Amino acid sequence: MLSKFRKYIEAFVANSKEYPVVFAIAAGLYSFIYVYHSNFMLVNSGFQFVIFLCAYLLLPIVVFVISWQIIKRLKFLSKLQHYLLPILNAVFFGFYFIGRIYGFHERKIILAYLIGFTLLAILLRKQYKKIVVIQFIMAFVAFVCLLPTLYRATFDSDEWQTQPDAIVKTKFNKFPNIYVIQPDGYVNFAELAKDPYSFDNEEFEYYLKKKKFKLYKNFRSNYTSTILSNSSLFAMKHHYKGKQLFGAREVIAGNNPVIETLKNNDYQTFLFIENPYLLLNRPTIQYDSCNFSMDEVPWFGFGAFGMRKKLIDPLEETIRNNRGKRNFYFIEKIAPGHITTFKNQAQTLEVERENYLEQLKEANQWLRFITQVIVKNDPNSLIVIAADHGGYVGLNYTKELFEKQTDKKLIYSAFSSALAIKWPDNIAPAYDDQLKTSVNLFRTIFTYLGDNPKLLDNLQPDTSHSIINKNAPSGVYEYIDSDGNVVFRKVD
Q1: How confident is the model at residue 161 (pLDDT cuts 50, 70, 90)?
Q2: Which residues contact 78 (CB under 8 A, 6 or more apart)?
Q3: Which one-letter DSSP state was computed for residue 417?
Q4: In what order do the strands lie in the sheet with 289-290?
């Protein structure tokens, strides 16, 4: 088998025949596969598959075949015929390859590389079929690396979402409008006052208390990314994943027991997000209304983080238009965020801290405005401010958490997250002292709304987890136990 394949390659390289389609496929195949290998969770919809297939494979094939037919028919271009396919291959391969590294918006960098790739193609014209073979080998290696991801995507079970009781059938006795506001990366109030944040947040905390919010100063998330944290939040269950969770965006977009429970109690559901990050792989939105349509979600994801929709004015209009109905709102604000994600982009610890705190001040101002609007229009509603994770201040970059950490303040900097709740009639339930982590937030709220303390019998462990890939055997580890102690136990 291998010997036949080797002979086929040798015959391909040795003969003088030109293969426009083969050269075209070689130009885009590696990048096509690599997109899925590096960003599978962002591009795993059928719609995106068709788009990427057209962009990376069909487009080169069309361009190569048409260009080849034109140059064959125009005699004055015949001398360039032997250079056409190598140059086209080099340009397309270089554009895809360099674009993925630097970003397709870096036009000057891409142009410089393309000039270099073109000159190289001209110089190596007679050997260029060997380069095409190398491109196919690169694609094959990328595909082999992709296979474990494809396997997990195919066979990973969603049984982790199964509830231990009939919580989705809970019948509410109270029906306040519910507002869950998520300021991305807002660290818990208790941690803000400590090193490494060392920030005086008293003025904003006083504002919240004056508005009858109860602050939960030891609250934290169970996971350290928006996707992993929110999927657990809305599923009301642990998934014990540290990197890829297949179907996570589908859960967040409404395919979850929280939305099911609310709809079973005749609630309308509204999703307000500042940018379409949660929708990049085009999940089915099961909220009754979303402020982003799929037509607004970038096909390739480019520019998604730069998109910013106003939230407060549209929210106020929606509140006014839906008076007299039972309404649930999930509102995500991309602020204050967190420190730099990657090592090669990180600045000094103090600069990262200052940048985060500046964003925190802006988040405080925004939270003032939105809570004032809600209280003015819906004074006896249930308002929850719940962050998805901390700000990571004190670490050099966020992914440093994936290297085994033992310093409690750094671990809590990543997991500790803000929680403040304005309960209807300003009366918090007696059992809210059990509210320690985000996985149990909605179960506690539904216990309150349904006057059903039995739901608390199935609280999830208040543990916090992260993937570790350095300074310890790779895997998902429990970083914080249910009592708030820093531990380091591998999850089976």
Answers
A1: very high
A2: 71, 72
A3: -
A4: 214-215, 419-422, 382-386, 178-183, 327-333, 268-273, 289-290
